[in-house]
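Long-time lurker, first post.

We've been arguing in lab meeting about whether zinc ion would sit comfortably in this protein at all. Half the group thinks yes, half thinks no, and nobody has a model to point at. So I'm putting the question to the forum: if I give you the sequence and the SMILES, can you give me back a predicted structure of the complex? Inputs are below. Any interpretation is welcome too.
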Amino acid sequence: MTDRTSARPDPGPIGARGLRLFSVAGVRIVADWSVLIAFGLILVSLGKGVFPSWHPQWSAALSWSVALAAALLFFVSVLMHELSHAIVGQSVGIPMRQVTLFVFGGMAHMESEPPSPRSELLMASVGPLVSLALGVGATALGVWLTPGDLLQQAGRAADPSSLLAQLGPLPTLLLWLGPLNVVLGLFNLMPGFPLDGGRVLRALIWSATGDMRRATAWATAAGRVFAWLLIGVGVAMGFGLVLPVIGGGLFSGIWLVFVGWFLDNAARTSYQQMAIREWLAGVRVSDLMRREVVAVPPDITVATLVRDYMMPSEQGTFPVARGDQFVGMVSFADVHRVPRAHWETCRVAEIMVDGAALRTLGPDDDALDALQVLANPEHHQDQVPIVLEQHIEGMVRRRDIARWLSLHGPDERGAA
Ligand SMILES: [Zn+2]
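Top reply:
Settle the argument with this. Predicted structure of the protein with zinc ion, as tokens:
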């Protein structure tokens, strides 16, 4: 299990789909479908493996019920960890409006880089502290609920498996959940970006050097070393390595390899996104928009749109303009929704996305705003129309931003 706070404006594949659960303190909670995999794995490993081995006398129904409660509470504790990032983040000036639960745990989406090392330090450290507090609290409660004579036997170092077997369902659950949260808190404190500990490291280097870019580069390097360490340990486990506490086995090994691979990806992406933000700072939309944009009238039929506009051009999405006025956009996807038999009668105005429903920008707006619109899955936009006084001036796609960066951005050979 791992977790990270994402510095990417782009939530990527995670967050784009998924089930919106509810909102807490202005933070959307979204469950990615992949969370079901993790939930299923935990449920099965507890219900079929851990609890029956601790409690051979428990009925299958009891094992599975405690396993279900434990798996649910585990995700509640992951959620509390992430929510603490989001709530503290918002209070120190880092907009964080979404938390996503996914196969490796959870993440809180940062919508911009932290304004200062101090704000990042507070935002990053609160998550592991919450996990550690939950872990110590649950463990203490579990011990407190354990009958005194059992504890005395434990003190005399009696056979641990027979002691475990005598625990009731609630102490069993708490003594599984507590230590796991402690492990979760400690894991997230590992000093590799973008883990929380890596963010703490970045904040410290940033505050010492005053150079956020260098701080990110160092913390990212540490994150990649840690990720490859996990991959190495995972592979070794596949070949029989057994570690104290963590254990061994092929399944754990494969899991560690995946976690390490994910972290390495996340470290690289977070670094690139930070670099892109830095390069785009101060750039105006008009510097990178495509100006050669053909607009279509709303009254033509879909057949005409396809024959006269779509087929002869490379353009995939067309602004729709009535005279000089921008009124909407129409794309291949909109055409696909119209049965071919209706192409001769259906008008563009009937199938276009209305201008009022689109995010548009002006030519003097910040290029970063365009990136944010494109990256936000809420907008469902792969193009941003650039509109000045109702007149379409140009369009911006991700590709246009990439083109600008390849000409003005970091030297490929020198890039990290
Ligand atoms: Zn965290």
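For your lab meeting: The longest strand covers residues 325-331. DSSP finds 16 helices and twelve strands in the chain. Whichever side wins, do check it experimentally.
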